[in-house]
Design a protein that fits this description.
Layout (H helix, E strand, L loop, with lengths): L32 E6 L14 H9 L5 E2 L4 E2 L5 E3 L10 H17 L3 E6 L4 H12 L3 E6 L19 H5 L5 E6 L4 H10 L3 E3 L6 H10 L4 E7 L21 H14 L1 E8 L9 H19 L4
Parallel strand pairs: 1-4, 1-5, 5-10, 6-7, 6-9, 7-8, 9-10
Antiparallel strand pairs: 2-3
Helix pairs in contact: 1-8, 2-3, 6-7, 7-8
């Protein structure tokens, strides 16, 4: 029998929250992490459908185990609040940057760690702008198959191919997993002596990971374009690139990052559900949960 004072209706429900968390466990005030779906897609240049990525990740997360075997911990105990999906302003690419800036600033002001779900990679610029005002020692770990360092592409400097270039106006950026760049980008990297770590590594994996982490500042915002992973395990992206990282290689890098630096925010972007099997959304959701776990297990505060 249901008590009149119960806050939830009887029966089994789908709550449309990360981990399918019921409302009485999804409170902003009690959460360490705030999941921010940003279904923005305007400057896509190959496969379309990244606007469906955030909802696919949230839906797939319902199948995750709360307990993480690697970390021997239930990460969800820290509290995860799922915010309503952002309604993108499509007036201009810069508009989404300002929208994300405002909502991430709101999250950070509450002492929470933002977990931004894209959508295309452009949303990262707004998040980093907001976090840079809160952390003067911020740097970005930019995990991507591509450099995204064009000053302009397809008539705009605010598209997915220019994200890292715009971030450099805000704080230092360290690339990892890069295996496809233009001649223009290669010249810019060399001229500016940017810390771009190409993939696959010419050294051993441990040396590669150490070099990446050593190049980062004390506080790190992690931006993960899912095409950093090999298409054999992550086909559902807008711009797939062969010969990428596997799950173990990527999570090793993220684990070492958590051990040696403070993860203050992160995003997972560019999931294009229609381009691959449903398992890709599950892998993306598990990656979100892993980053949460690594930021907690080795908390640098």
């Amino acid at each position: 029998m249901t008590n009149p004072g119960d806050t939830q209706p009887p029966g089994t429900h789908q709550w449309n929250t990360f981990l399918d968390t019921p409302p009485d466990e999804d409170r902003f005030d009690d959460a360490k992490f705030v999941v921010l779906p940003a279904p923005y897609e305007t400057t896509t240049s190959f496969l379309t459908g990244t606007r469906d990525g955030p909802s696919a990740i949230v839906n797939a997360s319902a199948q995750l185990e709360d307990y993480d075997l690697e970390l021997d911990a239930d990460i969800s105990i820290a509290g995860i609040h799922t915010a309503p999906a952002l309604v993108p302003n499509l007036h201009a690419p810069q508009a989404i940057v300002e929208q994300v800036d405002q909502v991430v600033d709101w999250v950070a002001a509450g002492g929470k760690i933002p977990a931004l779900l894209g959508g295309e990679h452009t949303v990262t610029v707004g998040a980093v702008k907001a976090m840079s005002r809160r952390h003067t020692d911020l740097s970005v770990l930019y995990l991507d198959a591509h450099g995204d360092l064009r000053d302009s592409y397809m008539g705009t400097g605010w598209g997915h191919a220019s994200v890292a270039r715009r971030l450099l106006d805000v704080c230092p950026v360290v690339h990892a997993g890069v295996r496809s760049i233009s001649a223009e980008e290669r010249s810019y990297i060399d001229e500016q002596a940017l810390p771009v770590h190409y993939w696959p590594p010419i050294t051993g994996l441990d040396d590669y990971v150490k070099a990446v982490v050593d190049a980062l500042a004390a506080s790190v915002y992690v931006s993960i374009d899912l095409d950093v992973l090999d298409p054999s395990i992550m086909a559902a992206v807008g711009t797939p690139e062969p010969d990428g990282m596997d799950w173990r290689q990527l999570t090793l890098l993220l684990r070492r990052l958590g051990q040696r630096r403070r993860i203050v925010g992160f995003d997972v972007v560019e999931l294009c559900p229609r381009a691959g099997p449903p398992t890709c959304a599950y892998t993306a959701a598990k990656l979100v949960y892993k980053v949460m776990g690594y930021s907690l297990a080795f908390d640098q505060t």
